Amino acid sequence: MGDGEPFRLADVAREREPERYDLHRAVLNPQLPRMLHAIGFDRHYVRAEGAYLFDEDGRDYLDMLAGFGVFALGRHHPVVRQALHDVVDLGLADLTQFDAPVLAGPLAEALLARVPHLDRVYFGNSGAEAVETALKFARYATRRRRIVYCRGAFHGLTTGALSVNGGADFRKGFGPLLPDTAIPFGDIRALERELAKGDVAAFLVEPVQGKGVAVSPPGFLADAQRVVHDAGALLVADEVQCGLGRTGDFFAFQHDGVEPDLVATAKALSGGYVPVGATLGREEIFAKVYSSMDRVLVHDSTFGSNAQAMAVGLATLHVLEHEDVVANARAVGTQLQDGLVELAQRYELIADVRGRGLMIGIEFGRPESRRLRAHWHALRVARKGLFAQTVVHALFHDHRILTQVSGDHIEVIKLIPPLTIGEREVERFLAAFADVMAEAHRGSRLTRDFARTLTTNTLGERRQR
Question: How far apart are the first and last CA of the chain?
């Protein structure tokens, strides 16, 4: 070996940090830094802890987005962080590909303990991969080709998952996709009509849709389970975002008392460190897919069950159980929703507050007063969903709170903060949101500020080219 300079990751991070957005423009997705700069979200975060991000000037930002749900335990939870250090220090003989990974069994057991009606687990690397696994297993086990899914659903962006994605903007230009069928969310009659055709392998559903935070109507999942099984098909629950405590129960389908045949989960299982996806299923489904030694690798992933992912998964489940995180999500979620419902009674631009636990949607709608209605319509003509974007912009720039519009062309803000937040974070958000709503009802400053940011930053970028 040569005597070259030692590799120090801290030096790379420190030295290249000022270039982060320029490097992204040069060698990664160039539209990401452009978009962030246009709306003024291109901050230089240097540290994160719990529910907070910190920029180079030491200012804190309340993170009500949690990396799209990845940071259910907040950032850098000490138990998960220590588990990652420990597994690296163990120096395990990992990913030999001809071995039974030592930590995969305990993590599978820990997951299945929460859902006694399921028997086996397949580990992959992401939510989309967990969904892809469920699609393949359902098709193989039933010997049928078609999957029914719901409009407004989001199940991932790989080709199979994209075929059951309810967002036309995501699907455009990537066809032909798999021959699957969308029905309105909550429409049991539409589901029955599709099942009657006899070629449906499974009904894939998010108990709480991530895109618009739509909660499955009372009784829908139970009815769906009945008609799906009567037709010889499978019920598949996508719990990639709404699972692992997010809704105040371990899995969101447990609110409805159903027992899906396959369950896909991911995001929070990572502990915020190592990507991991899991597909849980019934014995008879796995037995059909892995029916002989000849089929041992018929569905597999090179990095599936790697030691680092299994370690953070085990640590995450330990924290969820021993620190009462799920109960906290239920209690704090109720507190946050109650506060938002109270604000909705004061501000007519708030059309609905919905969700479960700490998965909450705030929908804006057409106001009654003539003055506000004229401004609302002007924004809608410019772009549907623009008002919600002005609210997100104001929360960030005026109050240092990170949120997101729940989907393109919809007037919904989604809140999916860490499940570990408490009264301090709830009060900060409610006070900030009330301030933004009061400003929105006073006049058009939110729109002017948003437009000014877009214009100034976009023109500035053009001059730099």
Answer: 44
What are the distances in angstroms from CA 380 to CA 207, 376, 389?
Answer: 30, 6, 12
How deeply is 9 buried, as exposed, middle or buried, from its count of CB atoms within 10 A (0-12, 13-18, 19+)? Answer: exposed
Burial of 169 (0-12, 13-18, 19+ CB in 10 A): exposed
Q: What is the pLDDT of residues 65-116, one digit of tens each?
A: 999 999 999 999 999 999 999 999 999 999 988 999 999 999 999 999 999 9
- Tokens describing residue 263: 């369950």
Q: CA 389, 394, 397 angle in degrees (round to 5)?
A: 120
Which helix or strand (DSSP H or E) is residue 352 part of?
strand 350-356
Peptide bond into 176 cis (omega under 30): yes
User: 80 near 73, Cβ under 8 Å?
Assistant: yes
Helix or strand or coil: residue 131?
helix
pTM of the model: 0.93
Listed range (211-215, 250-254, 262-266) with the worst mean pLDDT: 211-215
